[in-house]
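Hi U.,

Before I forget, here's the chain from the pilot set. I'm dumping it here mostly so it's searchable later in email.
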Amino acid sequence: MKDRLVKATSGGIRVYAAVTTDLVNDAVIRHKCQPTASAALGRTMTGALMLAANLKNEEAVTLTFKGDGPLGKIVADAVPEGFVRGYVEHPETDIPLNASGKLDVGRAVGAGIMTVTRFTGLKNPITGSAEIVSGEIAEDITNYLYTSEQTPSAVGLGVLVDTDLTIKASGGFIAQPLPEATDSEITQLEENIKALRPVSSMIADGIDGEGIIRELLSGFDDLKILSSTNLSFRCHCSRERVESVLISLGYDELSSLASEGHAEVVCPFCCEKYQFNESELQDLCEKVRK
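Structure:
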């Protein structure tokens, strides 16, 4: 089952549903994540993709959690074309299961602030924030959408980590009543959500994004699938970008690096390593002096 995000409407309800198993697996392998970190990062990346789904092409969104738990900062960048990248500050984090026998993402994230930054082509990006209410990611996004963007939403996210630490299933949904939604449609949606199985369980059983939507909108008429977008992990780092960062350090710091004879820069999002020898660093020094 391919990673894909599906958008649909029925009556006055809009739904986004995504399967993100492969891209989350790619991310956790790159970062060598332990299970609790895998779940937190996977949920954040999936959430970012769905928040980006209503943007225009060439726009972007960054979803950030800054909690006081052992995971540290969690960041995911996503674009509506279906690309996402992300990292967790302490991927080695793994804590005991919670009282329900599930990965305790909430305690690992801790209390703090989540922010959503939308890059829409304006001079300055638009940033909103909200307190982290549970650390479970889905509840926090639900709270953010309601308190900061005045958009009532139901958000579900799930990551199922296999015994070999790979990702067995990952995905999520966002369901939102539109202004024209009737009371009966909202009530039906609420009842469907209460009866819904965990999203990771559905995906593990082979249910794709459209299937998740059909379960969410069971009993609704006139379901319209608006689009289906392929999803993947993609980082836009490059050697040229890294060189620009090094140049921004200034001559003195660059010269100090050159005197050491070597520098290594690691992208925090994809873990790609960029190596610079003494000669290359000296060349960058000359560019700063010009």
